[in-house]
Amino acid sequence: MAEEAKKAKKELTVKKLREKGVKPREEVIEKSKEQRKIIKQITGCLESGPKTIPEIAAEVKMPVGIVTWYVMSMFKYGQVVPDEEVDGYYKYKLPVKKEESE
Amino acid sequence: MPEGYDALVVGGGIAGMEASLTLGDAGFDVLLVEKEPSIGGHMIQLSKVFPTTDCAGCITTPKMAATGKHPKIKLLTYSEVEGIEKTGKKFRVRILKKPRYVDENACIGCGRCEQACPVLIPKEWEYGLIGRKAAYIPFEMATPKKALIDLDNCIMCGRCERACPKEAINFLQEPEEIEVEVKAVIIATGYNLFSPEKKKEYGYTGNLTVIHTSANPNIIHGMQMERLLAPSRPYHALVRPGDGKVPERVAWVLCTGSRDKSVGNPLCSRVCCMYSIKQALLYSSAVPFGEAAIYYMDIRAFGKGFEEFYNMVRELGVEFIKGKVAKIESRNGNPVIIAENTETGEIMEEEYDMVVLAIGLLSNPEAVKALGVELDQYGFVAQPQENSNPAVTDKEGIFVAGTATCPKDIPDTVAEASAAAAQCIAYLEEVGS
Fold first, then answer.
1. Which residues of A touch B208 (CB under 8 A)?
2. How far is residue B324's CA from residue B295's CA, in Å, rounded to a whole number?
3. Which one, A83, B224, B236, B395, has the greatest CB density within 10 A?
4. Among residues B233, B58, B226, which one has the least CA distance to residue A76?
């Protein structure tokens, strides 16, 4: 009985909410997919080395303002780190993974 | 029987915290209701205060902690007063506590839900300069430091729930109606910021994730500049939002949305001159070879040490141009200010790396609607005895503090909050139990 109660407790409440008929908005799902694509593109672009935001924007073919927003958001969540400053622009790189740094 | 308190304080900014602490320290039971998920208000977002350039966060954070831990203060965040009714000597108050979809008692503020969430939304607390997740902690120093879920922008993938080590996420939470009884109320609902989109000729964009053809992300507003300059800033350095460049030439446009009948606000906001001068000083420290210019109609440096501060910044090399800005255009991503220098009559056209619109402070009438107090013609809480009893409203037992009555700076706000608390204490002692 206790095991069953524990199992029931572990069932995701988000699943129960879905079962109640509450669904995420379609535009939010689409936006999220687009965001993941952009983040993947930026991450892929930085695999070849540190770059400035205009350099990243040119490579991923996106408006530089939007790339700035994504790069700064990625910085806040530890997905990119700033590197040296060259002619007024910082370069950004991928963080060193823990196993690589050890 | 509803829970009872001596006083209800509405609003958890610097005025609300100060009033609550004064009441709590005097031994009164206080219920502090804040509509946002954390207390702290606007002040916790600021870089430094003028004219002392003391760190704003270093002043606000201890007040937040003291308020959050005070044995006589109960915090109700993410909650709003829905209605108030006076019965005898007491007020019966209806409060709506919005669902966080997180059990506040179980959440330890570890942020794992936020890391796991795949959705990015412009972060309100950073005025859209960066993104936040749909599962998030409002900001690093949030009080209480508890996560919440923005269900409207959630894809309901369940990653946050799986990542939570305390099983605190609960998507089945419902809004909660709470009824309390209080003897007195202090309104500390603060101000709204002017929306610079209304000045179309200045080309401000509200959403940095979408580039409008007519707008330039290097035109920002004063609170965004505060965030860029704050120690808890969203970026790693002072760079512009349009392309990450260190801005070498920055201009401030004063009176954006203040003293401007064309946008419906004839009032002076009283802080824009000084916060812009302070920002120009902080910018000059961050970018020592940068050029700073301030476009103004009049410099209103009326407080203690303000004139000296203004003169000091002027002597340090910040350029002050007396002129009304007519338009801000864009050239190669740079904002171009078109203005008339009213001292020389010259029409100027100057290109900058970044322009800061010194937006003004407006009333916040929506926040006090449920309290039923009288407002003045500008939507601020009316003070029927402004000269003799400034904290008194038209309703007996309801007091007011801070920018809920008009724009004002931090020292005046704090002084008024203490005054409101003192008047509230006198009232509580008079009405007794």
1. 65, 68-69
2. 7
3. B224
4. B233
- DSSP secondary structure of B321-335: EEEEEEEEEEETTEE
Q: In CATH, which superfamily holds the domain spanning B3-97+175-191+363-431?
A: FAD/NAD(P)-binding domain (3.50.50.60)
Give the torsion through C-alpha atoms of B322, B326, B330, B333, to 10 deg. Answer: 40
The verdict on a CB contact (< 8 Å) between A72 and B245 is no
B166 touches chain A (CB under 8 A): no
* Those residues with Cβ within 8 angstroms of residue B35's Cβ, 6 or more apart along the chain or in another chain: B11, B78, B79, B80, B367
Residue B239 CA from chain centroid, whole number: 23
Task: Say whether A65 and B208 touch across the interface (CB within 8 A).
Answer: yes
Min distance A31 CA to chain B CA atoms (Å) = 8
Q: Whole-angstrom Cα distance, residue B37 to residue B77?
A: 5
Q: Give, to the nearest 10 degrees, the angle between helix B56-69 and helix B14-25.
A: 40
Residue that wins the pLDDT comparison between A97 and B315: B315
Give the pLDDT band (50/70/90) at residue B236: very high
> If you average pLDDT over residues B375-401, what whole number do you get?
96
Interchain contact A95–B (C-beta under 8 A): no
Q: Is A88 on the interface with B (CB under 8 A)?
A: yes
B248: chain A residues, CB-CB within 8 Å: 88
pLDDT, one tens digit per residue, over B218-227 is 999 999 999 9
Contact yes or no for B373/B394 (Cβ under 8 A): yes
Q: Domain extents for chain B?
A: 3-97+175-191+363-431, 99-173, 194-360
